[in-house]
Amino acid sequence: EGDKGHEAPLSLQYWPMRSDHSIPELDLGWPEAMQYRGVTRATVYMQPPMEGQQHIKEVVRKMVASAQKVIAVVMDMFTDVDIFKDMLEAGFKRKVGIYIILDEFNVKYFRQMCERAQMHEGHLKNLRI
Question: How far is it, in rounded angstroms, from Cα 124 to Cα 121?
Answer without folding.
Answer: 6
